[in-house]
Amino acid sequence: MKINSQRDFTAGLLFSAFGVAFAWGATTYNVGSGARMGPGYFPLIVGILIAVMGVLITARSFITHSEDGDPIGAIAWRPLGFIIGANLVFGVLLGGLPGIGLPPMGLVVAIYALTLIASLAGDQFQLKGVLVLATVLSVGSYLAFVVALNLQFPVWPTFITG
Amino acid sequence: MELIEHLSLGFQVAFTAQNLLYAFLGCLLGTLIGVLPGLGPVATIAMLLPTTYALPPTAALIMLAGIYYGAQYGGSTTAILVNLPGESSSVVTVIDGYQMARKGRAGPALASAALGSFFAGCVGTLVIAAFAPPLTEVAFKFGPAEYFSLMVLGLIGAVVMASGSLLKAITMILVGLAFGLVGTDVNSGVARYSFDIPELTDGISFVAIAMGIFGYGEIIANLSVPTHQREVFTDKVTGLMPTKEDFKRMFPAVLRGTAIGSALGILPGGGALLSAFAAYTIEKKSRLKPGEIPFGQGNIRGVAGPESANNAGSQTSFIPLLTLGIPPNAVMALMVGAMTIHNIQPGPQVMTSNPELFWGLIASMWIGNLMLVVLNLPMIGLWIKLLSIPYKWLFPAIVLFCAIGVYSENNNTFEIWMVAIFGVLGYVFHKLACEPAPLLLGLILGPMMEENLRRALLLSRGEWSVLVTRPLSASLLAVAAVLVIIVMLPAVSKKREEAFVED
């Protein structure tokens, strides 16, 4: 048996695992019967269908034709880590993290941090340019979201504004 | 003439200074973001959705429709000038559009796309106004069993006509259905799959899913390929107007494209993408006039036809949404989400209970199309400037707008964690070649399908056969089954693969 499509093989396995987990989760709720569907009834069907489809996709990965085995390829850890990281740091700085005693730092600080970290995901990084970009984005976001659209944001750190 | 009455009501609503302003803003913002390479309409709408939260519902929907058209048109501009389709529906525009740009005829290419789209938009608006009321009548005859079967047909139709693997697309729908079920069950009050997280009892925010998968996922995928120099035709756009000869050639192509687009747009899953492909295929099959440039080397018909078709298709794909409440594609799924945020339940009742909103939206579609012509032709210089911004400045800004947008939905940082999770998931889907658009459809339809199935089975006392013994429901399911069988036929599946690999 040779795997002709690594992508399908992996996708199928992941789908099956998700489907089984979802269906198992559904059984922890009241499933009920067709005439009186409980909260677990429909999720159970969906979960089972996903699991079955996953098996089909995995099975197909052995019979499809491909020249190179349709590899998944290298995972782009750098962009993945920095983009998601930038997003998480933005959330932490914007709202604060009471668990470690970090107060909300507000929108402006969060934007600088996000821009800086996200820029590291690309392959050309210049600190000066990034700082200019962060300044432009801070001013622009303040004007667009806080002044013009009147959305509610903590703009400055709470220990300054009180 | 009911049609005229309805449309005039619509224009009364749309022609207020406020609503005109929002239509204009929507088109402007939509084009602004849509023109950026690598951002399709789904990501654009998801990003700009927060800008409409504070507006009254009618204004918000008008602005969203403007954003949608703007994003579509911006995508075509990018396709013609950079040889980079911003979205799948402008994939075929690239072929001849880019060649025209290389020959110094970017101006006429852009103008023919704009004029063709405008004409198609006018026809599309009329088609909606004419077909929406009778379809709404039909919709009122639907019981829960019919609705359930219709959604099955809609979902199957959507994946059958999309590109890529059928098996995976159906699975992605199911995964979307699963995500849609997270949260409090309306009948029993049980919080499903919420893991004791209070925010999850309201369900997963579709904005977080759309931004994570379509916004972050795409950025990560874009950044994972090394930056290469793109050829941008920034200084060669001179002489916008097509010549008389051009007009003579593009006019029939525009007519054909509009007809194809209007017809295919109504079909579930049809919409813009399929329309554009079909129109290009037909133009290519038709005979070349003496002295005409062959297709693939910059034939103006290869731009005008698909562009008209994709605009007509995106217009008429509003019909299933407005009359039946069923989104036929990912963009419309987002529109459903936007409507729910403004407390409008899309469906046949919108037209009767809220005629101002319904006809106002339709009238503003036409206004939106007009604005695109007014906006895009004179401002083409600005869009070109935008195109020359390097990606390294763009992507941090996109990441920021996604984060701000998702936060402002509930002023809760929890949504930011969700978008991070779905960003990772989006990249996984990209790596495994799983097209994410069907997931969004499933996500929106999940709760509706469950509710209709529940009602249908309750009425039939648990008999599943109700889905096939009621004639209307049975025929809808039969059509869905036939679609699947046709696509699985070896001859057709080969053709289908070929049709979507056109270069």
What's the short story on this structure?
Chain A contains 6 helices and no strands.
The number of helices of chain A is 6
Question: Can you count the helices of chain B?
Answer: 23
What share of the residues of chain B does DSSP label as strand, in percent?
under 5%
Helix content of chain B: over 70%
Throw out a few tags for this protein.
heterodimer, A: 162 residues, mainly alpha, 2 domains, 0% strand, flat, B: 503 residues, two-stranded antiparallel sheet, globular
Structure commentary:
The complex is a heterodimer of chains A (162) and B (503). Chain A is mostly helical and 162 residues long. Chain A has two domains: 6-63; 77-161, no CATH class. Helix content of chain A is 64%, strand content 0%. Chain A is built from six helices and no strands. Chain A has helices at 6-27, 41-63, 77-95, 106-119, 127-148, 158-161. In chain A, helix 3 (77-95) runs antiparallel to helix 4. The model of chain A has no long low-confidence stretch (mean pLDDT 85). By secondary structure, chain B is mostly helical. Chain B has one domain. In chain B, a hairpin with a 6-residue loop joins strand 1 (183-184) and strand 2. In chain B, helix 2 (17-34) crosses helix 3, helix 8 crosses helix 20 and helix 10 runs parallel beside helix 12. Chain B is globular and about 70 Å long. Chain B starts with a helix and ends with a helix. The model of chain B has no long low-confidence stretch (mean pLDDT 80). At the A-B interface, helix 1, helix 2, helix 3, helix 4 and helix 5 of A face helix 8, helix 9, helix 18, helix 19 and helix 20 of B.
